[in-house]
Write a structure and sequence with these properties.
Elements lengths: L5 H22 L6 E5 L2 E4 H17 L4 E4 L3 E3 L6 E8 L1 H5 L6 E8 L2 E9 L4 E6 L4 E3 L2 E2 L12 E4 L11 H9 L4 E3 L4 H9 L5 E4 L4 H13 L3 E3 L13 E4 L4 H7 L4
Parallel strand pairs: 3-5, 11-12, 11-13
Antiparallel strand pairs: 1-2, 3-4, 5-6, 6-7, 7-8, 8-9, 9-10, 13-15, 14-15
Helix pairs in contact: 1-2, 5-6
Length: 261
Protein backbone atom coordinates (compact mmCIF):
# COMPACT_ATOMS: atom_id res chain seq x y z
CA UNK A 1 0.00 0.00 0.00
CA UNK A 2 1.32 3.42 -0.99
CA UNK A 3 1.71 5.89 1.88
CA UNK A 4 -0.35 8.98 1.13
CA UNK A 5 1.62 12.21 0.67
CA UNK A 6 0.89 14.97 3.20
CA UNK A 7 -1.18 17.00 0.74
CA UNK A 8 -3.41 13.99 0.06
CA UNK A 9 -3.90 13.55 3.82
CA UNK A 10 -5.05 17.16 4.05
CA UNK A 11 -7.27 16.80 0.99
CA UNK A 12 -8.79 13.66 2.51
CA UNK A 13 -9.45 15.44 5.79
CA UNK A 14 -11.26 18.20 3.91
CA UNK A 15 -13.41 15.98 1.68
CA UNK A 16 -14.37 13.57 4.46
CA UNK A 17 -15.49 16.45 6.67
CA UNK A 18 -17.53 17.90 3.81
CA UNK A 19 -18.74 14.42 2.88
CA UNK A 20 -20.52 13.99 6.22
CA UNK A 21 -22.73 16.94 5.34
CA UNK A 22 -23.42 15.62 1.85
CA UNK A 23 -24.27 12.17 3.13
CA UNK A 24 -26.77 13.61 5.59
CA UNK A 25 -28.37 15.83 2.96
CA UNK A 26 -28.50 12.98 0.46
CA UNK A 27 -30.69 11.10 2.94
CA UNK A 28 -33.06 14.07 3.14
CA UNK A 29 -32.97 15.02 -0.53
CA UNK A 30 -36.65 15.97 -0.67
CA UNK A 31 -36.09 18.75 1.89
CA UNK A 32 -33.30 20.53 0.03
CA UNK A 33 -34.02 24.03 -1.23
CA UNK A 34 -32.97 24.15 -4.87
CA UNK A 35 -32.37 27.44 -6.64
CA UNK A 36 -31.83 27.81 -10.38
CA UNK A 37 -28.42 29.05 -11.52
CA UNK A 38 -28.76 28.31 -15.23
CA UNK A 39 -31.35 26.27 -17.06
CA UNK A 40 -30.53 22.63 -16.42
CA UNK A 41 -27.87 23.53 -13.85
CA UNK A 42 -28.62 23.66 -10.14
CA UNK A 43 -27.01 24.87 -6.98
CA UNK A 44 -28.24 23.30 -3.78
CA UNK A 45 -27.68 24.36 -0.21
CA UNK A 46 -25.47 21.28 0.04
CA UNK A 47 -23.29 22.54 -2.84
CA UNK A 48 -22.70 25.90 -1.19
CA UNK A 49 -22.18 24.52 2.32
CA UNK A 50 -19.81 21.84 1.05
CA UNK A 51 -17.61 24.40 -0.69
CA UNK A 52 -17.54 26.51 2.49
CA UNK A 53 -16.32 23.53 4.55
CA UNK A 54 -13.69 22.65 1.97
CA UNK A 55 -12.35 26.20 1.81
CA UNK A 56 -12.22 26.54 5.59
CA UNK A 57 -10.14 23.38 5.93
CA UNK A 58 -7.86 23.99 2.94
CA UNK A 59 -7.22 27.66 3.68
CA UNK A 60 -6.12 26.74 7.20
CA UNK A 61 -3.30 24.61 5.75
CA UNK A 62 -2.72 26.55 2.53
CA UNK A 63 -3.58 30.20 3.31
CA UNK A 64 -1.53 31.61 0.43
CA UNK A 65 -2.76 29.35 -2.36
CA UNK A 66 -4.98 30.52 -5.18
CA UNK A 67 -8.33 28.72 -5.26
CA UNK A 68 -10.51 28.10 -8.30
CA UNK A 69 -13.96 26.93 -7.25
CA UNK A 70 -17.15 26.18 -9.12
CA UNK A 71 -19.36 28.32 -6.89
CA UNK A 72 -17.11 31.14 -5.64
CA UNK A 73 -14.93 31.55 -8.73
CA UNK A 74 -11.27 32.51 -8.32
CA UNK A 75 -9.84 33.42 -4.92
CA UNK A 76 -6.44 34.95 -5.60
CA UNK A 77 -3.55 34.05 -3.32
CA UNK A 78 0.12 34.99 -3.22
CA UNK A 79 1.45 31.52 -4.08
CA UNK A 80 1.72 30.20 -7.62
CA UNK A 81 0.12 26.88 -6.71
CA UNK A 82 -3.57 26.57 -7.47
CA UNK A 83 -6.11 24.37 -5.69
CA UNK A 84 -9.18 23.54 -7.77
CA UNK A 85 -12.47 22.71 -6.02
CA UNK A 86 -15.71 21.14 -7.20
CA UNK A 87 -17.92 20.69 -4.12
CA UNK A 88 -20.31 18.32 -5.88
CA UNK A 89 -19.54 16.97 -9.32
CA UNK A 90 -22.79 15.42 -10.42
CA UNK A 91 -25.12 17.95 -8.78
CA UNK A 92 -28.07 16.86 -10.90
CA UNK A 93 -27.48 13.23 -9.88
CA UNK A 94 -27.44 14.37 -6.26
CA UNK A 95 -30.71 16.28 -6.62
CA UNK A 96 -32.38 13.21 -8.14
CA UNK A 97 -31.07 10.82 -5.49
CA UNK A 98 -28.59 9.08 -7.79
CA UNK A 99 -25.46 8.20 -5.76
CA UNK A 100 -22.90 8.92 -8.50
CA UNK A 101 -21.34 12.13 -7.21
CA UNK A 102 -17.88 13.29 -6.26
CA UNK A 103 -16.20 15.96 -4.15
CA UNK A 104 -13.18 16.93 -6.25
CA UNK A 105 -9.91 18.62 -5.24
CA UNK A 106 -6.89 19.11 -7.46
CA UNK A 107 -3.57 20.87 -7.11
CA UNK A 108 -2.01 22.59 -10.11
CA UNK A 109 1.61 23.79 -10.26
CA UNK A 110 3.04 25.51 -13.34
CA UNK A 111 0.14 24.33 -15.46
CA UNK A 112 0.46 20.69 -14.38
CA UNK A 113 -1.89 18.68 -12.17
CA UNK A 114 0.28 17.17 -9.42
CA UNK A 115 -2.21 15.88 -6.83
CA UNK A 116 -5.92 15.16 -6.73
CA UNK A 117 -8.72 13.41 -4.90
CA UNK A 118 -12.29 12.39 -5.72
CA UNK A 119 -14.51 11.35 -2.82
CA UNK A 120 -17.96 9.83 -3.23
CA UNK A 121 -19.37 9.97 0.32
CA UNK A 122 -22.51 8.07 -0.65
CA UNK A 123 -20.56 4.98 -1.73
CA UNK A 124 -17.55 5.75 0.53
CA UNK A 125 -15.09 5.64 -2.36
CA UNK A 126 -11.94 7.74 -1.87
CA UNK A 127 -9.82 8.06 -5.01
CA UNK A 128 -6.45 9.77 -4.94
CA UNK A 129 -3.41 10.25 -7.11
CA UNK A 130 -0.11 12.12 -6.86
CA UNK A 131 2.38 12.45 -9.65
CA UNK A 132 4.66 9.42 -9.68
CA UNK A 133 2.83 7.64 -6.86
CA UNK A 134 0.09 5.81 -8.73
CA UNK A 135 -3.70 5.97 -8.57
CA UNK A 136 -5.62 4.52 -5.64
CA UNK A 137 -9.12 3.88 -4.33
CA UNK A 138 -9.63 2.86 -0.69
CA UNK A 139 -6.02 1.58 -0.49
CA UNK A 140 -6.35 -0.45 -3.69
CA UNK A 141 -4.02 0.30 -6.62
CA UNK A 142 -5.88 1.24 -9.79
CA UNK A 143 -5.02 0.20 -13.34
CA UNK A 144 -6.78 1.05 -16.56
CA UNK A 145 -8.29 -1.86 -18.47
CA UNK A 146 -6.37 -3.95 -20.99
CA UNK A 147 -9.24 -4.44 -23.41
CA UNK A 148 -8.21 -3.80 -26.98
CA UNK A 149 -11.09 -5.27 -29.01
CA UNK A 150 -13.38 -2.29 -29.31
CA UNK A 151 -16.45 -4.48 -29.59
CA UNK A 152 -15.88 -5.53 -25.96
CA UNK A 153 -15.24 -2.00 -24.67
CA UNK A 154 -17.57 0.10 -22.51
CA UNK A 155 -17.22 3.82 -23.19
CA UNK A 156 -18.35 6.75 -21.06
CA UNK A 157 -19.55 10.11 -22.32
CA UNK A 158 -21.58 13.11 -21.24
CA UNK A 159 -24.78 13.68 -23.16
CA UNK A 160 -25.13 17.46 -23.61
CA UNK A 161 -28.39 18.97 -22.42
CA UNK A 162 -30.37 22.13 -23.08
CA UNK A 163 -27.96 24.91 -24.17
CA UNK A 164 -24.82 22.77 -23.95
CA UNK A 165 -25.33 20.83 -27.16
CA UNK A 166 -22.74 21.16 -29.91
CA UNK A 167 -22.71 20.33 -33.62
CA UNK A 168 -22.42 16.66 -34.57
CA UNK A 169 -22.58 15.27 -31.03
CA UNK A 170 -25.18 12.73 -32.15
CA UNK A 171 -22.85 11.70 -34.97
CA UNK A 172 -20.04 11.16 -32.43
CA UNK A 173 -22.30 8.99 -30.28
CA UNK A 174 -23.41 6.98 -33.31
CA UNK A 175 -19.85 6.44 -34.53
CA UNK A 176 -18.71 5.17 -31.14
CA UNK A 177 -21.77 3.16 -30.11
CA UNK A 178 -22.12 1.16 -33.33
CA UNK A 179 -18.86 -0.71 -32.70
CA UNK A 180 -18.52 -0.94 -28.90
CA UNK A 181 -20.21 -2.84 -26.08
CA UNK A 182 -22.13 0.24 -24.99
CA UNK A 183 -22.02 3.89 -23.95
CA UNK A 184 -22.66 5.04 -20.40
CA UNK A 185 -23.59 8.59 -19.41
CA UNK A 186 -22.88 8.69 -15.69
CA UNK A 187 -23.58 12.38 -15.18
CA UNK A 188 -20.32 13.28 -13.42
CA UNK A 189 -17.05 13.82 -15.29
CA UNK A 190 -14.95 13.07 -12.21
CA UNK A 191 -16.64 9.69 -11.70
CA UNK A 192 -16.27 8.84 -15.40
CA UNK A 193 -12.53 9.47 -15.17
CA UNK A 194 -12.23 7.56 -11.90
CA UNK A 195 -13.96 4.60 -13.56
CA UNK A 196 -11.54 4.75 -16.49
CA UNK A 197 -8.64 4.70 -14.02
CA UNK A 198 -10.22 1.73 -12.24
CA UNK A 199 -10.74 -0.20 -15.49
CA UNK A 200 -14.53 -0.14 -15.17
CA UNK A 201 -14.84 2.04 -18.27
CA UNK A 202 -12.40 1.50 -21.11
CA UNK A 203 -12.63 5.07 -22.38
CA UNK A 204 -14.46 8.36 -21.92
CA UNK A 205 -14.90 11.55 -23.91
CA UNK A 206 -16.77 14.76 -23.26
CA UNK A 207 -16.77 18.37 -24.41
CA UNK A 208 -17.36 21.75 -22.77
CA UNK A 209 -16.04 20.85 -19.33
CA UNK A 210 -14.35 22.97 -16.67
CA UNK A 211 -11.05 22.37 -14.92
CA UNK A 212 -12.77 21.63 -11.62
CA UNK A 213 -14.70 18.79 -13.29
CA UNK A 214 -11.61 16.92 -14.45
CA UNK A 215 -8.51 18.01 -12.51
CA UNK A 216 -8.20 15.02 -10.20
CA UNK A 217 -9.62 12.51 -12.69
CA UNK A 218 -7.05 13.28 -15.36
CA UNK A 219 -4.21 12.58 -12.94
CA UNK A 220 -5.94 9.37 -11.82
CA UNK A 221 -6.12 8.09 -15.40
CA UNK A 222 -2.50 8.95 -16.16
CA UNK A 223 -1.21 7.42 -12.93
CA UNK A 224 -3.27 4.28 -13.64
CA UNK A 225 -1.48 3.85 -16.97
CA UNK A 226 -4.01 5.51 -19.24
CA UNK A 227 -3.79 8.27 -21.81
CA UNK A 228 -5.45 11.69 -21.80
CA UNK A 229 -5.63 14.02 -24.83
CA UNK A 230 -8.06 16.23 -26.62
CA UNK A 231 -10.61 14.25 -28.67
CA UNK A 232 -8.57 15.00 -31.81
CA UNK A 233 -5.41 13.59 -30.23
CA UNK A 234 -3.74 16.91 -29.48
CA UNK A 235 -2.23 17.60 -26.08
CA UNK A 236 -4.65 18.30 -23.22
CA UNK A 237 -3.83 21.36 -21.10
CA UNK A 238 -5.53 22.89 -18.06
CA UNK A 239 -7.24 25.35 -20.41
CA UNK A 240 -8.81 22.61 -22.55
CA UNK A 241 -12.60 22.20 -22.32
CA UNK A 242 -12.71 18.88 -24.20
CA UNK A 243 -11.23 15.54 -23.18
CA UNK A 244 -10.59 11.99 -24.33
CA UNK A 245 -9.30 9.49 -21.76
CA UNK A 246 -8.83 5.75 -22.18
CA UNK A 247 -6.47 2.83 -21.92
CA UNK A 248 -3.60 3.17 -24.38
CA UNK A 249 -4.82 0.28 -26.54
CA UNK A 250 -8.03 1.88 -27.83
CA UNK A 251 -7.21 5.58 -27.61
CA UNK A 252 -6.58 6.09 -31.31
CA UNK A 253 -9.63 3.98 -32.18
CA UNK A 254 -11.93 6.35 -30.27
CA UNK A 255 -10.05 9.33 -31.63
CA UNK A 256 -10.77 8.27 -35.20
CA UNK A 257 -14.45 7.71 -34.41
CA UNK A 258 -14.75 11.25 -33.04
CA UNK A 259 -13.53 12.77 -36.30
CA UNK A 260 -16.93 13.69 -37.73
CA UNK A 261 -15.80 16.43 -40.12
Amino acid sequence: MQIQPPIINIFEKAVRKAGKLLLRDFGEIENLQIQSKNIGDFVTNADLKTEKILLETLQYYYPNSTYITEESGKIKGSDEEIIVIDPIDGTTNFIHGIPLVGIVLGKVCNGEITDGVIFNPILNEFYWASKGKGAWCNNKRLRVSKRQDFVNCLIGSGLPQINRTYPKYLEEIDNVSRDCSGIRSIGAAAINLAYVAAGKLDGYWERNLNLWDVSAGILLVREAGGRVTLPNGNEWTIDSPDILASNILIHEVIQKKLKTN
